[in-house]
Amino acid sequence: MILYIRSFHFLPDFPPLPVAPNPHAMGRWGRQSPVLEPPDPQLQGTPPALPPRTFMRQSSITKIGNMLNTAININGAKKPQSNGEASWCFSQIKGALDDDVTDADIISCVEFNHDGELLATGDKGGRVVIFQRDPASKAANPRRGEYNVYSTFQSHEPEFDYLKSLEIEEKINKIRWLQQKNPVHFLLSTNDKTVKLWKVSERDKSFEGYNTKEENGLIRDPQNVTALRVPSVKQIPLLVEASPRRTFANAHTYHINSISVNSDQETFLSADDLRINLWHLEVVNQSYNIVDIKPTNMEELTEVITAAEFHPTECNVFVYSSSKGTIRLCDMRSAALCDRHSKQFEEPENPTNRSFFSEIISSISDVKLSNSGRYMISRDYLSIKVWDLHMETKPIETYPVHEYLRAKLCSLYENDCIFDKFECCWNGKDSSIMTGSYNNFFRVFDRNSKKDVTLEASRDIIKPKTVLKPRKVCTGGKRKKDEISVDCLDFNKKILHTAWHPEENIIAVAATNNLFIFQDKF
């Protein structure tokens, strides 16, 4: 009988972190390749704490006068011919419409909660903005997808790692919602090093008339209490409060790229370039290391972890992708350290497409399991693939996203666009998938009809009743009227983050500092 012993990571006793790589050095996976030097034994000790920050920068999404909240009126709109497919139309845009965009206002993640009533966004300034579904739009016939600002709070602040002499950005890398069990909402947010659990709650009552406390909160001298009084409840305007409940820190040497909540709603994983840790939501000072691909000699490093996610129903199963284009499925029941995967999904490379950039463009930037748990999608630089968990040899579906860029890989390498990390998402029925592209284009693929469409998140369409027109890219020859030349694409405008409502055809698309919300029109 083999006995597996699960090892603990006692976080306060972690050894000093290795020296950070040169951020301007070009590695195989971009400018942040984890090619590190061994730690300096002289750098022992605890870094001094940063002074508290009492202010919060205001997000452009919540600035008064800078929000355009335009909703469509479907009742008077003419219905197109029904062909079994959704025709997307504009619903709302959030964020400032100025051309002068600050780096802190750029949206870095988008996530619906489990019933789609709330939509959270994080930005590079460390802020989290939560939108709530408008009850009137939900009750309308037909239903409309309109969201209003619900809460805004500062999730992370910039920090400084004194051991590595490296600044830690406040940018929000990922947001994940916990399933709601009571009127209170919980979500996880992470930057490069620290995961935080936030509680979002409502309060519309306050208590006054205390015997031992003044109205301003100061404690009263008991000798001045001459009479007893019964505290009373006072109705106040609705107040939404966001408070940090847990902070999970000091467990990652490299930058966190993924977090995922387990189906048991008690544990979650956090993944960086070389390790995946398992946490319990109630324990902040220790975590389990369940995957460690760091070689003894860093010169032997051949791949890094790019994304990780738990299975939606099986609490013991998770998947993670790598820069080599492989996806590994692990079962935590088989061993405490899941270095040996249960399944490996990898498609053999086509020799005809072999080039200098093959290894870079085959790197998987995102992986998402379907709601049913039977399939998963993976996004590499040029395509999105659908995998059946019962078949490891090849994907069952492959959809090219922007194949016309294959001829421009050299210039994309020079301007670093080839290292962009595009995300992907499922719709609620697992029948369609969505991902982003350049020029503020995003792609929607229908798995049933095998049809796809290219749409654009543009400020030119922010008018009521505007139906999105399909866009086409011309690669050569004579360009048609509605087509755009591949040489005219703006690579500074890119859709990296998208989200799909879990129950309805409502999608959220992040375009720089603007959040576009579209819905279907039947």
Automatic annotation (TrEMBL):
Entry keywords, A to Z: Repeat, WD repeat
Region (Disordered): 29-53
Originating species: Drosophila ananassae
Cross-referenced Gene3D superfamilies: YVTN repeat-like/Quinoprotein amine dehydrogenase
Family: Belongs to the phosphatase 2A regulatory subunit B family.
A GO biological process held by the record: protein stabilization
Entries under SMART domains matching the protein: WD40 (SM00320)
Full protein name: Serine/threonine-protein phosphatase 2A 55 kDa regulatory subunit B
Domain of life (superkingdom): Eukaryota
Gene field: Dana\GF18135
One term of GO molecular function: protein phosphatase regulator activity
GO CC terms: cytosol; nucleus; protein phosphatase type 2A complex
Presence of keyword Transferase: no
